[in-house]
Amino acid sequence: MLAAPLHLLALVLVVSGIQKLVAPGAAAEAMAHARLPLPWRGRPATGIALGAIEAATGLAALAVPHRLAAAWLGVFYLALAGFVLLLRARDADAGCGCFGASSTPPGTAHLALNGVAATTAFAIAAAGVPDIVDVIDDGLVTAVAYVLLLAIGAAVLLVAPALTSEISRLLRSEHPSPPVRTFGSVS
Length: 187
Prior knowledge:
The chain is an all-alpha fold. Helix content is 72%, strand content 0%. It is built from seven helices and no strands. It has helices at residues 3-22, 25-33, 44-63, 67-91, 108-127, 132-137, 140-174. Helix 3 runs antiparallel to helix 4 (67-91). The mean pLDDT is 78.
C-alpha cells in the first residue's frame, strides 16, 4: 500500500515545519552556516519561512491525493538532501536545523533519509497517489492502526538522524585511532 509511505513522509514535513515555526533559530543558523544567498539569512524569519513552506508541503501531500503533490514532496526532500550536502561542505559541525530547537550536525543519516524520501515520493508520484479516504473506509480498526503506524514511523524518522549522529560521536570518542607507526620507530 503506497498510502503509508506517502503519508509518513508528509507527516514528517508537517512536524518538522511546525517545530521550525515554534523555534526558528536553529534553521536560520543552519542556513547562515550554509551561506545560502537569502535576504534574511541567519534571522528567525528565514526559519519561520522554511517551517511554513515545509508544513504546507506536508499538509498538501496529506490532503490532496494527486501526483503533483507527491512529486513536489519528492522535490522538497531532494532539496533538503542538497542542503545537507552544502552544509556538510561549508560547516560540517553546524547544526542542521531540521527539527526546530533540536539540531544535530548534518550526517550521513540525514543525507540517506532525505534521498530515500525523495526517491520514494517520486516513485509514488509515478505509480499513482493513494487517497487517505480509502484507508479510513476500511473501518475504524484499520484507520486507528494506520494512524498509530504513522505516528511510530514518524517518531523513528525524527529520531534517526540524531541517533546515528550520537552513535557515530560515541564510537569516535571511545575508540581512538591507534598510534601511527613509521618504519624504524621504537615502541
